[in-house]
Amino acid sequence: MLLNLDQFITEHVTGRAKSLFQNDIDANKELLAKRINGKSALVIGGAGTIGSSFIKAVLKQGRLSRLYVVDTNENGLTELTRDVRSSTDLNVPETFITYPVNFGDTVFKKIWEREGPFDIVTNFAAHKHVRSEKDHYSIEAMVDNNVLKAKQLLELISQTPPAHFFCVSTDKAANPVNIMGASKKLMEEVILAYSQKFPITTARFANVAFSNGSLPFGFLERLKKRQPLSAPLDIKRFFVSPKESGEICMLACLLGESGDIFFPKLDPGRDMQTFTHIGDQLLRSLGFNPQLCQTEVEARELAASLTDSNKSYPVYYFKSDTSGEKPFEEFYTEAEQIDVHRFEALGVIQNSTKRHLGDIEIIFEDLHQLFYSDRLDKKMVVQLFSKLIPTFEHVETGKSLDQKM
């Protein structure tokens, strides 16, 4: 299967010949270099698509003195190192070290205390899938990673704060309908409560095309295994390329004012795509014709009978009916004040909710009490998040993405 993925994303997903953020990078080139050159950086969750893209974006714009990368994905860190050291356009610092460590573990605290402080700290470690809210076990793990550990990290680094701290959010934090989005909205409020102590920024994202674990990435895996493609018919999403995802984070981290929430300026009429469109275009790019199936069973049976001479490829497209699924994306709410003039391709939310640290402590007491309850179920989590986040309107259908192909 030969596919130039970057070219495919340019032609069939984003429709952009150059990065959406190139003009903003060019306009701030000297300032970016000034804030990178000679500085030390710690990247948490750096083996993922966005974290690794952030690293490459930074290493293109300047030369760090030290770069430490932490991620629980040991294989991902290995590939990151191979990729970075095999590239010709990156300024790789002499001190470039990766650690397969959870940022909530004791060993991470040792790394911070003995190797820090760092000038730039970024956190990309997150549960990002709506499917991660299937029951109270997966929800607790998600809230622990997205919210509780975020506060633990902030408490740790507050002792010797960085010049720049960035933590990735999601478009699903705006008027959330799923617990994942609500957890990210709460994460925003937690980190922004610390934004008066040291510079903190975040960004709400579009989908990153073919990012690890995403549905388009799954298309590639299904093709390798000769399995059918499957996608919802009625879900539209904004997309940025992996390269653009790193650039958003770099610009927000290094150029934002403390408390800013960034988002890409994208047009709903021009820039939204369905997953079915991407699936069809991917198949055609590889020389196949999509063969629409009416059921998962039919699609699996057709895929099992595929031969090398087949020019048709089975797809199963369906109307979305799973919990927490939003049919469209939005980056901000009507109550949020946005600045669309500071950057050409990035908007900035300026009046985001900034709770007092005392309020955060009360919220965390509620969360801990909830998760230690013997009667814990998903409904109880939804009730608490509805209390904490007034814009949260959970969509429950009783069906999970884990029940789909």
Which secondary structure elements does this structure contain, and how are they paired or packed?
Elements: H1 5-14, H2 22-27, H3 29-36, E1 40-44, H4 49-61, E2 66-70, H5 74-86, E3 95-99, H6 106-115, E4 120-123, H7 136-157, E5 164-168, H8 179-193, E6 200-203, E7 207-208, H9 215-224, E8 229-232, E9 236-240, H10 242-255, E10 261-264, H11 268-271, E11 272-274, H12 275-285, E12 289-293, H13 296-304, E13 312-318, E14 338-339, E15 346-349, H14 357-371, H15 378-388
Parallel strand pairs: 1-2, 1-4, 2-3, 4-5, 5-6, 6-10, 7-9, 8-13, 12-13
Antiparallel strand pairs: 9-11, 10-15, 14-15
Radius of gyration: 21 Å
- Helix content, binned percent: 40-55%
- Give the SSE order as H and E letters: HHHEHEHEHEHEHEEHEEHEHEHEHEEEHH
Give the total of beta strands. 15
Gap between N and C termini, in Å?
A: 22 Å
Helical segment count: 15
Poorly predicted tracts of residues: none
Approximately how much beta-strand content do the residues carry?
Answer: 15-25%
The overall pLDDT, averaged over residues, is 93
The profile of the biggest β sheet is: 9 strands, mixed
What is the SS-derived class? alpha/beta
Please state the overall shape, judged from the principal axes of the Cα atoms: globular
Describe the fold and architecture:
The chain is α/β, with parallel strands linked by helices and 405 residues long. It is built from 15 helices and 15 strands. Helix 4 crosses helix 10.
Give a quick rundown of the structure:
This protein is an alpha/beta fold and 405 residues long.
